[in-house]
Amino acid sequence: MQTGDFSKKLFPLSTKSTKATVLVVDDEQPIRELCSRILKQAGFNVELAKSGDEAWALLSKKRYDLVLTDLRMPGELSATDLVSMIRKEWPSTDVIIMTGYPMQDITISRLRKYIFDYLMKPFDTYTMLDAVRGCLNPFSHQNPA
Known about the structure:
Blueprint: H1 3-10, E1 21-25, H2 29-41, E2 45-49, H3 52-59, E3 66-70, H4 79-89, E4 94-99, H5 105-111, E5 117-120, H6 125-136
Parallel strand pairs: 1-2, 1-3, 3-4, 4-5
Helix pairs in contact: 3-4
């Protein structure tokens, strides 16, 4: 099996979600780069920000389908503030929170009504892709009958 064949099996392209644009926000460069590489291989358009402030500047200039953001970051704009502002300005932009701090359950439960999902670091490729694809799948947002 050639490398390209393995990549197609690991990152099968789905339908419309592959054209979605994802903003990855994390102060740790290795995390940003890993998420970017995985999402690009899966067919998503990806942009990166290293803080809430940088993310807000990018969001102010361009529409994103999904923001995948760390919960704890340096800077003036916290992830909690960023999520709140995204919900106010762009209610159709979904948010998935990433955190390496399991004790942040209180913060996550407070944010739960504003976010689609959250990921506990370290997470594997499949977990992240499942969350992202689930978020961008229009059927994930429908209320059950």
